[in-house]
């Protein structure tokens, strides 16, 4: 796809903003992407699905779109389905891969069937006896809504008495809640680009947050978090983690780009997959641009490479079936 130039990409829409809890981050990502594409001579335009209708999206007659939306209605397959219906090529994963990756519970189930390490977990509902969960997963443990990102609605539970409050917080965002074994160790993230057998991992980043708290504030709005890229890891372990990330990406049939969060257990250096983001952040604090920069790829070039992979994922050729 690299032979495409700015003019041949046509009229490009950058979709950002949206209606999810991650709207503010998406606005930052989208503005960055829009400026980068324009600097490369792309005929690019902003489009906020929260402020404009699907009819207006169709009327714009975009030749392709760059999805810089995060969370619900942009990263969960719903928008991808709309774009397939409108016949507008788009960046990132398709309908099914986006929907599955957005659901941390289903993602873990698929990874487990592929033999990929992920922390033990339990699915919590209003009928769950919350006080029994730590008996199975141990303490501390993590409670989170399975369809949110950017650490929204997440709690670290250190005692039985904290279960109810943590569940109530996560339940504000989802009908079911994910309880997850806490893995003590180093926090890593791996960006993956490409599709199928051509998918590859960028350098691993280690995240060192103040007091080990990589929350919403420390992700996007402070400079106190340190990012080590490439992470200081044994070369064999580095390769193992990168291969695991690519395998996890392929297991969900992702394409274009994504970022996988990994915990490296302190006791034995065993990596565990936490989650995957199929429309990662592109802000000044975001990690995919940081990993790309470590390979010599600028933010602007990264945006262009992602944009050039935009395509429709559902085959449109329909053959008639005759008896």
TrEMBL record:
Q: Kindly indicate where the leader peptide sits in this chain.
A: none
Select a single GO molecular function from the record's annotations and give it.
Answer: ATP binding
InterPro entries per the record? ATP-grasp, ATP_grasp_subdomain_1, D-Ala_lig_Van_CS, D_ala_D_ala, Dala_Dala_lig_C, Dala_Dala_lig_N, PreATP-grasp_dom_sf
**The ATP-grasp domain, residue ranges:** 108-308
Chief location of this protein within or outside the cell? cytoplasm
Catalytic activity line of the entry: 2 D-alanine + ATP = D-alanyl-D-alanine + ADP + phosphate + H(+)
Pathway listed: Cell wall biogenesis; peptidoglycan biosynthesis
Gene3D superfamilies linked: 3.40.50.20, ATP-grasp fold, A domain, ATP-grasp fold, B domain
User: What is the recorded name of this protein?
Assistant: D-alanine--D-alanine ligase
* Organism name: Undibacterium oligocarboniphilum
Source gene?
Answer: ddl
